[in-house]
Design goal:
InterPro entries: Ribosomal_bS16 (IPR000307), Ribosomal_bS16_CS (IPR020592), Ribosomal_bS16_dom_sf (IPR023803). It comes from Alteraurantiacibacter aestuarii. A 5-stranded mixed beta sheet has the order 4-3-2-1-5. The chain has 5 helices and 5 strands. It has about 180 residues and is an alpha+beta fold. It is elongated and about 90 Å long.
Length: about 180
């Protein structure tokens, strides 16, 4: 006969109360059991000593004769220090497959390349901002000479009555200074 240490539900609807029992594993969950070895009341606070009560002597006896605890009962026994519980999850099962790993690696390399390109562009911009002072001096003279020679459309040209803005110099003055 295969014996299991498991929970047997009692209590009212939406008010669960469990007995921790040693039962034949082929019997119904709430059916006939061999012995009650503890209680579990999930409605109580987690730090309440009345939440889980265990009869350690009887639990040790049933474990010695080969009874197998259910997962929840094994957790209770581990907390009580009666029996150490083994991890049941397979950590390898949750890892991504080979194709997913390859896609993630490819995505990471593309992101790194984009980041490097952005840094290089930023460094070039900084270098261009620092270096152009000597280079811009000759470049500024040529456009300054060409600008007054260009004619503006009649609509945009200031009227003869209007005074030029403070920043602007009259076209005649620019030519005379040269």
């Amino acid at each position: 006969m295969a014996i299991s240490l498991r929970l047997s539900r009692g209590g009212a609807k939406k008010r669960p109360y469990y007995r921790i029992v040693a039962a034949d594993s082929r019997r119904a969950r709430d059916g006939k059991y061999l012995e009650q070895i503890g209680t579990y009341n999930p409605l109580l606070a987690k730090d309440d000593p009345e939440r889980v009560k265990l009869n350690e002597d009887r639990i040790r006896y049933w474990l010695s004769v080969g009874a197998q605890p259910s997962d929840r009962v094994a957790r209770f026994l581990d907390v009580a220090g009666i029996r150490e519980r083994e991890a049941r999850n397979n950590p390898v099962k949750g890892e991504p497959g080979e194709n997913a790993k390859a896609r993630a690696e490819e995505k990471a390399t593309k992101a790194a390349e984009a980041e490097e390109a952005a840094k290089a562009a930023e460094e070039e911009a900084k270098a261009a901002a620092a270096a152009p002072a000597p280079e811009e001096a000759p470049a500024e003279e040529a456009p300054a000479e060409e600008a007054p020679a260009e004619e503006t459309p009649a609509e945009e040209a200031p009227a003869a009555d209007e005074a030029p803005a403070a920043d602007e110099k009259p076209a005649d003055e620019d030519k005379s200074e040269d």
